[in-house]
Design a protein that fits this description.
Length: 367
């Protein structure tokens, strides 16, 4: 089958893991392909994806082949596929807007943002690049808090007529006004805010759902996360966290049955620990009551490599988006969004979302 042609805005750790994974699974067969939720989606395998356009704003990435840029500082994720062939796709200068937090300039070069000397791209340039490259899907991998920049690339996707996967907690797909724009154009969208393959939020949701199903009253809970990548460094600016906290909190609240009082639930990033690099550590506590109002509590520590955890889901989101294009399905892809994203337009339990997504993949569900 033809390759799925994608463009990426933001060549950070998540993009690095995704691009490494596309190459990594070329040497695998279905029966030994560890780490995938689906090997085949609509006839497309994990390596049937090609990056044809890329945008960033860091001096160390702009102007480089994508296969080199993904290993440039400040990226620090695990290198599990080091020998990448040159892609021929050069990272172009993007548009900065609010894509960088001001405080990040105060860190050493291996952690901070180094602005490119190239002139920022405007919308016409990005749209032209999307069209000329033949991109079918644009992935948003911008930093948390990039409200204006995320909307900028969403507008570019609309004008270029390419599908949009919003991996970040800026509400595009779950915003009725934005969703209507893509619906009117018949362009598929998936979002918002990628849910890791087995990360803090999916684990928290699964346990909250278990409490509900087993008749345990969940009264108080927190999820505290630490990490050392640029995502955590960026989130030291608490002004950029509003949508992230809302996305993560609602992902948990949506499965508890009876909502927890705001004072009794805390879900969100907690601190930046440089030596952790791309390792993310989650500390989870849940307090509730069992039969007879007898109290109980649960504590869990989860340690994962953050960016590969994301890529394991995005590689499926891309292929679901592609089969929507093949089937001429436009607008919100509700089933994939509910399974792959923390803040979809409609929340379902993960069991329901899993079933709906498999029905969508098999063609037994239109959306």
């Amino acid at each position: 089958m033809d390759k799925i042609k994608i463009a990426i805005a933001g060549i950070g750790n998540c993009a690095s893991s995704l691009i490494q994974g596309i190459e990594y699974y070329k040497n695998k067969e279905e029966n030994d392909a560890i780490g995938l939720m689906h090997w085949n989606i609509g006839g497309y395998r994990p390596f049937d994806i090609e990056v044809v356009a890329a945008f960033d704003i860091d001096e160390r990435k702009v102007g480089k082949d994508v296969s080199d840029a993904i290993f440039a500082l400040p990226n620090c994720t695990t290198v599990f596929c080091p020998d990448l062939p040159r892609s021929g796709t050069i990272v172009k200068m993007g548009c900065i807007l609010d894509g960088v937090s001001e405080h990040m300039a105060g860190y050493s070069d291996n952690r901070s943002f180094v602005p490119s000397t190239e002139k920022e791209a405007d919308k016409d340039q990005v749209v032209r690049e999307l069209k000329d490259s033949g991109a079918e899907i644009l992935l948003n991998y911008l930093p948390v808090g990039s409200e204006d920049a995320t909307k900028f690339y969403a507008e570019c996707a609309l004008e270029a007529g390419v599908a949009y996967i919003n991996n970040m907690p800026v509400f595009i797909v779950s915003d009725p006004e934005w969703a209507a724009k893509f619906e009117e154009r018949g362009i598929p969208i998936v979002g918002d805010d990628i849910k890791a393959q087995l990360g803090a939020t999916i684990t928290h949701r699964t346990l909250a759902d278990l409490f509900r199903k087993r008749g345990v009253k969940l009264e108080r809970t927190y999820q505290l996360n630490t990490g050392g990548n640029t995502d955590f460094l960026n989130m030291l600016n608490r002004n950029r966290l509003a949508s992230k906290k809302e996305s993560k909190t609602e992902a948990v609240q949506s499965v508890v049955g009876q909502r927890i009082d705001d004072d009794n639930i805390h879900v969100g990033p907690s601190d930046y620990v440089p030596w952790q690099n791309d390792n993310k550590v989650c500390f989870l506590r849940m307090e509730g009551k069992l039969f007879g109002d007898v109290p109980m509590n649960l504590e869990l520590r989860l340690s994962v490599e953050d960016s590969p955890n994301s890529a394991g889901v995005v590689i499926d989101a891309i292929r679901c988006c592609k089969i929507a294009l093949d089937r001429e399905i436009g607008g919100i892809l509700y089933s994939p969004s509910s399974y792959f994203m923390k803040h979809p337009p409609k929340q379902f339990t993960d069991d329901e979302a899993f079933m709906m997504t498999n029905e969508f993949i098999s063609g037994h569900r239109d959306n």
